[in-house]
Design goal:
By secondary structure, the protein is of the alpha+beta class. It is built from ten helices and twelve strands.
């Protein structure tokens, strides 16, 4: 846009200058010719004043002095054919002036200024002042060159001013485009700084409002999905336990498969929300873990499960959102209640780690298949023991999204231990 505006201003300025300077240049040339003719007429008249009073020698001396001082050839045609001063042919214009008429005549090489001197004894004398092309154009080229330089300078100034104005318009528009690209890439913290014309400022304010609205909608979506997952996991765990306690094996398998399908649907909602929310987030991991453990402690008390909670005294910041960390803790505690017998104890520990936070969830159950090695349990849908593997997949994705990792180990009591290392914000 800057280039097009500069070209437009250059073209417009050029047309205006051409329309102004061409007539002005012609006027300058006409004025130069008129000034030269006026000067030559005055010189010829000054010589003509000496024609009747001086002899031929004195007249010749006067003509030579005037010619030398002015640079114009001065010639006096006396009656009887005598020529005094600069040699010159007797042209038809001179013959016409000899009849008593002063005039100016154009020749092939210049301009003749003829002054008739009447009342002489022998007839009429004619004083001729000759102006060449250089005399008629004296000073015109310099003026034209100055006008050309002035025109080019005006065009350059116009282009510079247009470029500054275009920059004042395109810079905020470029900023808006940059902010929109950042928003499209998932950086919902990007905001435009309104600037430029009022219309561009309105666009910037509208873009900021849109970005804020998008952030609010995504936050509401995350909170809704997290709330739904919190509300459903405890009933799902209870329903799974009820299904496993049925006396009819076929009915237990059938109902268990339905519970698995519902758990996959809930986990899929959580995963989709986390995938759509990629902006940088952080939370107080100690507060989030404490709140989720309190939530699950009701079910633990009903099943007679001893519970151990080890949290730091102060806040501990992790590079994940509170909703993501809540979903991770719910998934890990849900696995404890789903895959360990009633009465099996579990422990939740949270501590600082180099570059982040370390979360441990350990139980006294049967442990992972294969001795607790990090193999199939981390593969989505292939964890074994009748599990879908979605819980560990949610925990792994949460850890990796923060720049951390997920480790599987054996607890001191022989059960399973999941270690989630969360990166710092």
């Amino acid at each position: 846009m800057r280039r097009w505006l500069a070209l437009l201003v250059a073209a417009t300025t050029s047309l205006v200058l051409i329309a102004l300077l061409v007539p002005l240049g012609l006027l300058v040339r006409a004025l130069a010719e008129s000034s030269a003719v006026t000067q030559a007429t005055a010189e010829a008249q000054s010589v003509a004043a000496s024609v009747g009073t001086a002899d031929a020698d004195g007249l010749a001396l006067t003509a030579e002095r005037t010619s030398a001082s002015s640079g114009h050839d001065i010639t006096v045609f006396l009656p009887g054919g005598t020529v005094v001063g600069s040699p010159a042919p007797r042209s038809p214009a001179v013959e016409l002036a000899a009849r008593g008429q002063s005039l100016t005549a154009q020749t092939a090489s210049g301009l003749e200024v003829l002054v008739a001197v009447q009342g002489l004894p022998g007839g009429t004398a004619v004083v001729r002042a000759f102006l060449g092309e250089e005399d008629l154009r004296q000073g015109v080229r310099e003026v034209w060159l100055g006008m050309l330089v002035l025109g080019l300078a005006l065009i350059a100034v116009g282009i510079l001013v247009a470029d500054r104005l275009a920059l004042a318009l395109t810079r905020p528009m470029t900023g808006l485009a940059r902010v929109s690209h950042r928003l499209a890439a998932g950086d919902l913290t990007a905001r435009a700084t309104p600037g430029g014309p009022v219309e561009v400022q309105d666009v910037g304010l509208a873009l900021n409002h849109l970005a804020g609205r998008i952030s609010d909608l995504l936050a509401e979506e995350r909170e809704t999905a997290a709330d739904i997952s919190h509300r459903l996991r405890t009933p799902l765990t209870g329903l799974r336990l009820e299904a496993e306690s049925l006396a009819d094996p076929e009915e237990a398998v059938r109902l268990g498969s339905r519970v698995d399908a519902l758990e996959r649907a809930v986990s899929s909602v959580i995963t989709d929300v986390r995938r759509r929310s990629q902006e940088n987030a952080s939370c107080d991991a100690a507060a989030v873990v404490a709140e989720r453990v309190r939530f699950w402690s009701v079910l633990a008390e009903d099943q007679g499960r001893p519970m151990e909670l080890d949290l730091p005294r102060g806040p501990l910041t992790a590079g994940v959102s509170a909703a993501e960390l809540s979903a991770c803790v719910d998934a890990l505690l849900g696995n404890v209640f789903a895959h360990t017998p009633e009465g099996a104890s579990f422990a939740v520990r949270l501590a600082p780690a180099p570059g982040g936070v370390r979360l441990e969830v350990a139980d006294s159950g049967p442990g992972f298949p294969g001795g607790g090695e990090a193999g199939d349990p981390l593969e989505r849908g292939r964890s074994g023991a009748g599990s879908t593997g979605l819980g560990l997949d949610i925990a792994r994705r949460t850890a990796e999204a923060s720049g951390g990792s997920l480790l599987l180990d054996t607890s001191p009591g022989g059960g399973a231990m999941v270690v989630v290392v969360l990166g710092a914000p």
